Amino acid sequence: MKRFWSIMLLVILCFVSFGIQALYAGEIDLLLEKLVDKGVLTGAEAQQIKYETQETVKKEIATGKYSMLPAWVQNMKLKGDLRLRYQYKHDKYDNDITRDTHVGRIRARLGLEAKINEKLMAGIGIATNKNGDPRSTNITFGAEDGGSSSKFQIRLDYAYAMYDPLPWLRLTGGKMLLKDVLWEPTDLVWDTDITPEGGVIVLSKDVGDKTKLFMNTAVTVQTADTSSNADPIMTYLLQPGATYKFNDNVSLKGAFSYTNFSNVKGTAASTWSGSTNSRVGSNWKYDYRIISPALELSIKEPFKGVGLNVESIRFMGEYVNNLAAPDKNTGFALGFRTGNEKIEKWGDWQLKYIYAMLESDAVMDTTPDSDRYGGKTGIRSHELELQYGLGKNTWLGFDVYRSWNIASTRKAPETLIQVDWNMKF
Predict the structure, then answer these.
(1) In whole angstroms, what is the distance from residue 409 CA to residue 175 CA?
(2) Does 241 share its domain with 281?
């Protein structure tokens, strides 16, 4: 009985300590140590009480029910990441002229999610950025605003509201994260740094225990500038898809996307164009009405039978065809990702390989991955990436691209090597 009341007293003291010291974990540790020293608790019992207390507080904070904190604090989540990069690029031009470039880069992002009520959430994010580039949040050392240790620019990266009025319906509007607009297993068509502006409707429904259906419908604004008598460039997306679980270890996800970039033909090319789409003067020659089927096969513990401890492997494939261009209008990507699902601790790893090909008018040259041959079309490329965990919330990344120009006889091969130190919080 004495032990019971001692434990109850400890729990009460812990919660009082949370309120007085603003959840300072060191107070709990101190109380536990004293009770262990006095023989009231064993070391194992103290660790168990500490864990259970922390989990209870976490649960109450996550649900906004912890009385020691204001509700607005419990309904907000702050997150961010920092990446330091060394990049080497080797270019080869006509007459065997080559150029080697070595640069250092930094990327910093900070995001805030606020739960307005049970069905409504808002997200706001800022990031480093140069002149509003939609496909990059990198800042190059010494190259921004004339160098000389000039100050870097921070810009609004995204700002959106997400509303779930029904279990199978989600509405999102604003400047949105790409993952909330569409599903893509590769970055063949869309660079993952792009944050589309507009609105999206997502429908999702479980059909039995093995199948989940979804439908993404979006309208986004590419440019609203009508000063040249051209209509604004809009994007209309329709993406039906499904996920099917064969068993606990094997699943298949697929989708078929139709994306219409309207009012492109005859409009002056964007500042962020890769200058590789067909032109008439400085204007785009074609519209872009793109169909893109994609598949991803996921297998958990694929090599367990031969004694290899690999958490998962995913095989990815994506095809693209621009129906508005008569030729040079296709592309595809094939690859795999294997290793741990997430990099969470020392020794976790992921290995990814993608082979990609994009003809000149397969997609608009403002959207593909900016690291793959500078985000241009009319290319083919190999990418090999390794990520390795250094500890909790930090990891190293090694990314290598080998790319060629296929739009002309001048292949101009390029090798790009990126070494990243990633940190998230």
Answers:
(1) 40
(2) yes
DSSP letter, residue 374: G
Is pLDDT of 2 > 50? no
Beta bridge partners of residue 103, listed in sequence order? 87
Closest residue by Cα to residue 338 from 358, 357, 361, 310: 310
3-state SS, one letter per residue, for 98-114: EEEEEEEEEEEEEEEEE
Answer yes or no: is 27 within a domain.
yes
Quick one: angle between helices 25-37 and 43-62, nearest 10? Answer: 160
Which tokens hold the place of 172? 């999102």
Domain holding 44, by residue range, is 2-62
Q: What does DSSP say about strands 330-339 and 211-223: parallel, antiparallel, or unpaired?
A: unpaired
Domain match, 119 and 47 both? no
pLDDT of the residue at 19: 45
- Distance of alpha carbon 216 from alpha carbon 257, whole angstroms: 9
The single-letter code of the amino acid at 369 is D
Residues 6+ away with beta carbon under 8 Å from 39: none
- Let me know if residue 69 belongs to a domain: no
Read off the pLDDT of residues 92-101 as tens digits, 9 standing for 90 and up: 876 677 889 9
Q: Rounded to an integer, what distance in angstroms lies between the CA atom of residue 188 and that of residue 293?
A: 12
Residue percentage of the chain with pLDDT more than 90: 66
Q: d(Cα 144, Cα 158) in Å, to the nearest integer?
A: 22
Cα(186)–Cα(191) distance, integer angstroms: 9
CB under 8 Å, gap of 24 or more: what pairs does 246-251 form? 246/210, 248/300, 249/299, 249/300, 249/301, 250/297, 250/298, 250/299, 250/300, 251/297, 251/298
Residue-wise pLDDT for 11-47, tens only, equals 444 444 444 344 445 666 777 777 777 777 787 877 8
70 assigned to some structural domain: no
Work out the mean pLDDT of the chain and round it to a whole number: 87
Q: Return the pLDDT at 83.
A: 98
234 contacts 262 by C-beta, under 8 angstroms:
yes
282-338 per-position pLDDT tens digit: 899 999 999 999 999 999 999 988 888 999 999 999 999 999 999 999 999 999 999
Please give the torsion angle defined by the CA atoms of residues 162, 165, 167 and 169, in that order, rounded to the nearest 10 degrees. Answer: -70
Domain match, 6 and 151 both: no
Q: Which two tokens stand for residue 160?
A: 């959106």
